[in-house]
Amino acid sequence: MINIAIDGPAAAGKSTIAKKVAARLGYKYLDTGAMYRAITLYLHEHKETDLNELSELIDIEFSQEGKLFLNDRDVTDMIRESHITKQVSSVAALKEVRVFLVDLQRKISSKKGYVLDGRDIGSVVLPDAELKIFMTATPEVRAQRRLIEEHARGNNIELSVLIDEITERDTNDMTREISPLVQAEDAVLISTDALTIDEVTSKIVEFANEKV
Ligand code: C5P
After folding, report:
1. Strand partners, 188
2. Is the CB of residue 21 less than 8 Å from the CB of residue 27?
3. Which parts of the sequence bind ATP (predicted)?
4. Protein residue with least CA distance to atom 5, ligand 1
5. Eight-state DSSP code of residue 52
6. Residue with CA closest to ligand 1 atom 12
């Protein structure tokens, strides 16, 4: 078994594809963005937190069905709310937060057989990952996909608002000092603009089968 790193900007389809790739290969999926969102929720609710104590204060667990539990509370839906999405890239820029989560992500994936999606998996978390993918799409295509998800959740948000939100989050993630979003040198670039979910999934599964 190998580990597969999937990085790229916001709403490029990483999590949808990563889940499908994991299912096709019989691997586990680790949503590292959800972990940054969980910490963002915790810090929002506990404003006086000492960032050096994160490992004592925070327990993050994913259930078999992919639900996220923060200190035994199901926060799967809460971490997707727009006030968390707006704050997450500033929390993800904090050194203590990154040190805590990178360590946790390495521990979880150490037994191999994981598909991880995020921003720094191929560059920082698992520089030795056997397969690295950098997934992109234009901001318009990404916002359009996010719009469909938001409408399905009952949020009547406008496309232009989503384009602005996505562009701002990408800029923050690409320009932060620690582990900015970059394409690892040995990552395969996949632009998903003109590809279906199944086409992208099959491509990655093929690459993975060549590695094992
Ligand atoms: O993947 P998702 O959009 O849920 O990620 C939310 C945020 O978490 C990103 O915008 C980024 O700021 C942060 N993140 C990160 N490193 C990762 C995964 C996510 O900094 N590996």
Report:
1. 133
2. yes
3. 8-16
4. 33
5. G
6. 89
Tens digits of residue pLDDT in 132-144 = 999 999 999 999 9
Instruction: Give pLDDT, residue 17.
Output: 97
What is d(CA 39, CA 19) in angstroms, rounded to the nearest whole number? Answer: 22
What's the whole-model pTM score?
A: 0.95
Q: Measured from the CA of 15, which atom of ligand 1 is nearest?
A: 1
Q: How far is the CA of 119 from the centre of ligand 1 (A)?
A: 6
Is a pLDDT exceeding 90 seen at residue 153?
Answer: no
| Whole-number Å distance between alpha carbons of 91 and 8 | 18
Tell me the one-letter amino acid at 107: K
Q: H or E stretch including 56?
A: helix 54-57
Residue located nearest, by CA, to atom 11 of ligand 1: 89
pLDDT, mean of residues 101-117: 97
Give the angle 6-11-16 at the CA atoms, nearest 5°: 60
Q: Which atom of ligand 1 is nearest to the CA of 169?
A: 10
Determine the Cα–Cα distance for residues 149 and 210; give it in Å rounded to an integer.
Answer: 33
Architecture of domain 3-200: 3-Layer(aba) Sandwich (3.40)
Ligand 1 atom closest to Cα of 10?
3
